[in-house]
Amino acid sequence: GKKSVPIISFALMIPIGLVIPFFWGIITKVLISGSVIFMNKYVGPGIYVALNRLLIPFGLHHVLSSIVRFTEAGGVYMINGEQYVGIMNAMNEILFNLGPTHPAWNEYMPTLSSYMAPAQMLTTLFRVPAIGLAMYHTAVTKNKK
Predict the structure, then answer these.
(1) What angle do CA 88, 91, 95 make, to 5 degrees?
(2) Which GO terms describe its biological process (predicted)?
(3) Residue 77 burial (CB < 10 Å; 0-12/13-18/19+)?
(4) Residue 3, domain member (yes or no)
(5) Does the global pTM surpass 0.90?
(6) How many CB atoms lie within 10 A of CB 95?
């Protein structure tokens, strides 16, 4: 019935949730070792977006984003003699401390920005208002308030 799906899902997720942490270290090491391909400025963003979309139904896309943003999987960048691990740390240094006149801007920002939810923010921001507008336009005139 209707209640069996949540009950079975809950019962199955308990052992899965207990087992996955033992293997997650291996998954992280695979992602870090593949960072040479993953961070390639031509192929990497496509792989990242594809993996991100595949993980959305399971809610694991946040884990992938965190790994790329804060670990060696996102790359290690030398900026002004300092080492920055992950996309977010390097991007914050360039955006907030160095600015667009620094050579690191042209060198790193095209690659870094392609991993920060490209083309996702506009669709996310305007999706709900667009749905509301569509509902308003398709509603019967006498039902509009």
Answers:
(1) 135
(2) phosphoenolpyruvate-dependent sugar phosphotransferase system
(3) buried
(4) no
(5) no
(6) 14
